[in-house]
Amino acid sequence: MAYRLVEELALKRRLDTDSYRTLITASANNDAVFAHLRDKAAKTAITKFGYGIFIRGLIEISSYCSNDCLYCGLRRSNIEAERYRLSDEDIMECCATGYDIGFRTFVLQGGEDRALTDDRLIPIVSNIHGKWPEAAITLSLGERTDDSFRKLFHAGASRYLLRHEAADESLYNSLHPVQMSWSNRISCINRLIGIGYQTGMGMIVGLPGQSVDSLIKDLSLMEKIQPHMIGIGPFIPHRRTPLCNNRPGDIRLTLIMIAISRLMFPDALIPATTALATVSSTGRKEGILSGANVVMPNLSPVSTRHKYAIYDNKVSSAAEAAENINLLEQELNRIGYRINYSRGDYNTDINHEQI
Ligand code: 5AD
Q1: 3-state class of 52 per DSSP?
Q2: Which candidate, 172, 173, 146, places its Cα nearest to that of 160?
Q3: Which atom of ligand 1 is nearest to the CA of 161?
Q4: Which atom of ligand 1 is nearest to the CA of 109?
């Protein structure tokens, strides 16, 4: 039964709610079904992208956050969090270092820092775009106004990551402060797509209070929105948050959701996330073998990396560090993959240069 559902999903790219439930439960409990699902997902990625894995240089530009998400170590209530903001020069230096290593995507990520106004960000984006026009600029800076999204797009950003975190509205509300609204988050994602951004969404697996039905809602929401990029990682508790005593998310369930997402969206750019690499030393590799085709090494200044602590023990060394690209290449080689140094835009021929 579950095997047939894998085939059906690969063919139709969607299942009904009951079938998703059957497939998720069977994959969680039966090793052979789990292996079959992952194998099908990995083969689907190979058919589309070959054995090349895209890399994105992640620059964590600010650890300040005016938001208060219950799961995140950078929440404003965490008065012990170490706060920093990179200067324009720091950011340009990170890009220059990354460009020399071979990165052709820079991801500027940060908390919802009120100091990151349009006046501050637009020159940064346009300077990067002007200096390295062949590189893609991805922003991951939380919810902003439509006007701001547009201005940043016109300044040269072409991609935006804004995870929906949880499609189940009551689960979402239980994990976010009242000032945040689920509907605004979803409308931000829709607006980003409308503007023309390659847009990423995604969820945290294993959030306290999350059920299999919540995860099915995540799949249904993504089916409706049709994102270009999908970030999925396990929940990892942070000691200075209200969720500090909760259990981390299950790695196997995370891999199941990655594999199902790959079968639903064969063209999507799906990272093997840092959270996966943090919960398991083989997490990154397992993500790729479940259909992921992107990794996002850390390109932030080494001195600030430990301060961007969204969860405990976040890895930023070894193959997770941009300067150790050779370690990443070796790790990929060991499972038959390699780095694809091209920009890796959504669904364009550029992607296929190095297959
Ligand atoms: N565990 C796992 N993922 C987390 N994120 C934030 N806090 C945690 C946590 N404790 C994720 C959110 C956010 C992304 C940058 O990191 O999904 O969008």
Answers
A1: strand
A2: 146
A3: 18
A4: 15
pLDDT at res. 348: 61
- C-alpha separations of 247 from 26, 35, 159 in Å: 22, 25, 33
Instruction: Tell me if the domain spanning 12-340 has CATH number 1.10.10.10.
Output: no
Average pLDDT over residues 93-111: 98
Tokens of 162: 């804004």
pLDDT tens track for 17-72: 999 999 999 999 999 999 999 999 999 999 999 999 999 999 999 999 999 999 99
CA nearest ligand 1 atom 7, residue:
72
Tokens of 310: 């969204």
* Å from CA of 303 to ligand 1 middle: 21
Out of 67, 204, 251, mutate this one to test ligand 1's pocket (max ligand atoms within 8 Å of CB): namely 204
Q: For residue 107, is pLDDT > 80?
A: yes
Distance from the alpha carbon of residue 165 to the mean position of ligand 1, in angstroms? 8
For the chain, the domains span: 12-340
pTM beyond 0.70: yes
Please give the single-letter amino acid code of residue 281. S
The residues lining ligand 1, judged by C-beta closer than 6 Å to any ligand atom, are 71-72, 163, 165, 204, 233, 235-236, 238, 275, 310-311
